[in-house]
Amino acid sequence: xxxxxxxxxxxxxxxxxxxxxxxxxxxxxxxxxxxxxxxxxxxxxxxxxxxxxxxxxxxxxxxxxxxxxxxxxxxxxxxxxxxx
Length: 84
Prior knowledge:
It is built from four helices and four strands; from the N terminus they run H-E-E-H-E-H-E-H. It is an alpha+beta fold.
């Protein structure tokens, strides 16, 4: 999986009030900015979970993601396993 594939088929870890899952996007420009600065020696920390979480995982570095929503973590894991 690479950045283009993530942009084309984003993860949907967020849940609305009706229980529907969706992606909260960040711009392609921000996604490219993040990708250009990561490598397998990166140590990153983020609050929230979504597109950026997948990019941090793709880098191969050490990443900590803080979210109170366990379903988001599970959906990101499933997305990465399915699209690996």
